[in-house]
Amino acid sequence: MADIHQTAIVSPKAELAEDVTVGPYAIIEENVTIDSGCKIGSHALIAPGARIARDVKIHHGVVISTVPQDLKFSGEVTTAEIGERTVIREYATVNRGTEDRHRTVVGADCFMMAYSHVAHDCILGDRVILANSANLGGHVVIDDWAIVGGIVPVHQFVHIGTHAMIGGGFRIPMDVCPYALMGGTPTRVVGVNHIGLARRGFSDETIKVIRTAFRIIFRSKLTTAKAFERIDSELPDIPEIRTIREFFESSKRGVNR
């Protein structure tokens, strides 16, 4: 039987695994599922539509799956999904989806620090980190391993590529290229996230190829089409280059240059 503090309020229509722990004054409403090994901290609110996978740690004051902050929302049934082993720190918030995607997703092994916010219809991949007070607008997509620094506002519909890192305090109004390190005023690509890539096992040769591709794309003043023509003629066809090319080809907001 779940370990539920006597002051917590848990709807009989919520589904909790037998080893879930629920702290003081937490509220778990109906149409919620919480899988094995999860810990729900004191004063947390888990609202209808929450789908929380195994071994998630939710700290004090966190709010999951409340209705979207979207004037178009009309009460449709949607979800907020939290992946396995994700940690959500104090007072962070995740809104559920709207009719656009019908769900908001935070992937596995993510880390949401205190006061961070994931808005409706956002899709976060695995091992994403949101530092303190990072705020995502609606419909944002963040690919695996990306890091968003503290106090960063991310505009709605932005796509942040895999292994990108955004420094603290920088505004993100456009898509962020995979493997990029973002900073400066105005915010721009200041280089390759080489420290992050090295820590994750990328070889020196691969990082060198990515860095050369970045110089061609972001420093040569060539058009995107011409830049990739030059990349094709000068650089090896490795998966990381294909990832960058596909990202540019699929971008809807435009990639921050």
Keyphrases for this structure?
UDP N-Acetylglucosamine Acyltransferase, domain 1, alpha/beta, single chain, 257 residues, 2 domains, eight-stranded parallel beta sheet
Q: What is the H level of CATH, i.e. the homologous superfamily of the largest domain?
A: Hexapeptide repeat proteins
List low-pLDDT spans. Answer: none
| Counted beta strands | 27
The CATH topology of the largest domain corresponds to: UDP N-Acetylglucosamine Acyltransferase, domain 1
The share of residues in extended strands comes to 25-35%
Explain what this protein looks like in three dimensions.
With 257 residues, this protein is of the alpha/beta class. The chain folds into 2 domains: 194 residues, UDP N-Acetylglucosamine Acyltransferase, domain 1 (3 Solenoid), CATH 2.160.10.10; 50 residues, Udp N-acetylglucosamine O-acyltransferase, Domain 2 (Up-down Bundle). It is 18% helix and 26% strand. The protein has 4 helices and 27 strands. The strands form 3 sheets. An 11-stranded mixed beta sheet has the order 1-4-7-10-13-16-19-22-25-26-27. An 8-stranded parallel beta sheet has the order 2-5-8-11-14-17-20-23, with no helix packed on it. A hairpin with a 4-residue loop joins strand 26 and strand 27. The protein is elongated, with a radius of gyration of 20 Å. It starts with a strand and ends in a 7-residue tail after the last helix. The mean pLDDT is 97.
Short description:
The chain is α/β, with parallel strands linked by helices and 257 residues long. It has helices spanning 194-199, 204-219, 224-234, 239-250, and strands at residues 3-4, 9-10, 15-16, 21-22, 27-28, 33-34, 39-40, 45-46, 50-52, 57-58, 63-66, 79-82, 87-88, 93-95, 103-106, 111-112, 117-118, 123-124, 129-130, 135-136, 141-142, 147-148, 153-154, 159-160, 165-166, 180-183, 188-192.
